[in-house]
Specification:
By secondary structure, the chain is of the alpha/beta class. The protein folds into 2 domains: 122 residues, NAD(P)-binding Rossmann-like Domain (Rossmann fold), CATH 3.40.50; 145 residues, Dihydrodipicolinate Reductase, domain 2 (2-Layer Sandwich), CATH 3.30.360. It has 10 helices and 14 strands. Helix 2 packs across helix 8, helix 5 runs antiparallel to helix 9 and helix 7 packs across helix 9. The longest helix has 24 residues.
């Protein structure tokens, strides 16, 4: 647990937490809005390499705008880092070394080594490091957690239409990692084996993927993620010895099915129970949890280690998908995979595809 320094004790005594947001893109602006609504937080400023974007949202939220994230150092106690994945490490490192607590969006970093270094820096400097696995704070997940005791089989689908965001990483690190984090928090057992397949469709990285994850404790999870669907679906089903639970992340609805014995029919049957879910805003829950962890110097709900664990499993899945693409003749032929396979130009195989009409320029916020 991070040590309580003099500044931390002052915060806990009733001072508002001075916060900033780095990266005011699609998600970053929502972080800023939530901070502005939390009484315990004081939104000091927004930083973005696109000055007009920072200025636009700073004006709306009555705060300051900066074009360099380093300008926030010394002015804030904590920050949200909402920049492209390949910048997570460098930006979060600057703030941890500068004595700030950090909420970094998922995936925690681009590599395991970077995640380990951020965890070590947070420990060294006594800082809070929270990872933005948003679904942990979904009111339905919070309500379901107490009902999940001994999962045997888990089935998860996360399907979204193509929106052009998050394409600096594949669908595993963009979407599936949400479900991996939730499932790891439910199962609490080491991963034994992974079977995965996926393909690129609209981008130069894998856009649809399916994986079967087997755990040492015996549980098996079947997970599908797609960012090229014609429907929007985010659901998970958890099967246990005497019950199974269905959860819809979007509608925040939970149904728990019990096995009961019917004396009239002299057989087992299933009865359905709707689980009450307290209303709440998922992102606001996450931001508020971070603010309170910083003020009270308690471990965050989603630690750096949690983020690293989800990243490690996600990377194993991505690596296996790339290996499987080599082995499937129809896919290999489509992408021109021959003996000179390493020269193939798309993710994990030497860069990008030679042609990609949907390629978008990478943004820095």
């Amino acid at each position: 647990m991070p040590h309580r320094d003099v500044k931390s004790r002052k915060r806990a005594a009733g001072h508002r937490l001075r916060v900033g947001v780095v990266g005011v893109g699609y998600l970053g602006k929502f972080h800023a809005q939530k901070y502005s609504l939390i009484p315990e937080a004081d939104l000091i400023g927004l930083a973005d390499v696109a000055p007009r974007k920072a200025e636009e949202w700073a004006e709306k939220l009555r705060t300051a705008a900066f074009s360099n994230h380093l300008d926030l150092l010394g002015k804030v106690d904590a920050v949200s880092v909402v920049v492209p994945t390949d910048l997570h490490y460098s930006v979060a490192r600057d703030f941890l070394e500068g004595g700030c607590d950090v909420l970094v969006e998922k995936p925690v970093t681009a590599t395991i080594r970077e995640a380990d270094e951020l965890i070590a820096l947070a420990r060294k400097h006594g800082r809070i490091l929270q990872v933005g696995h948003l679904e942990r704070f979904n009111p339905a997940v919070l309500a379901a957690r107490e009902k999940i005791r001994a999962p045997i089989f888990i089935e998860s689908h996360r399907l979204t239409p193509f929106r052009g965001r998050g394409t600096e990483v594949d669908v595993v690190l963009d979407l599936m990692i949400h479900d991996l984090d939730i499932i790891l928090s439910f199962v609490r057992s080491p991963v034994k084996q992974i079977h995965a397949v996926g393909i690129p469709v609209l981008t130069d990285k894998v856009d649809i993927a399916n994986t079967r994850v087997e755990f040492e404790g015996g549980c098996v999870a079947n997970i599908t993620a797609s960012r090229i669907s014609f429907e929007d679906r985010r659901r998970i089903r958890v099967f246990q010895p005497d019950t199974y639970l269905t959860l819809d992340y979007a509608s925040k609805e939970i149904t728990l099915y019990h096995r009961t014995f019917s004396a009239e029919n002299q057989r087992f049957q299933l009865s359905a129970e709707q689980i009450e879910v307290e209303p709440g805003d998922t992102l606001e829950n996450e931001i508020r949890s971070f603010v309170l962890a910083c003020l009270n110097r308690i471990p965050p709900a989603v630690t750096g280690e949690d983020g690293r664990n989800a990243l490690a499993v996600a990377m194993r899945i991505s690596e296996q998908i790339q290996e499987n693409i080599k082995k499937i003749p129809s896919i290999a032929a489509f992408y021109g995979v021959q003996e000179g396979f390493p020269e193939l130009r798309f993710q994990g195989m030497g860069g990008r595809r030679k042609t990609n009409p949907c390629r978008r320029e990478r943004k820095t916020s």
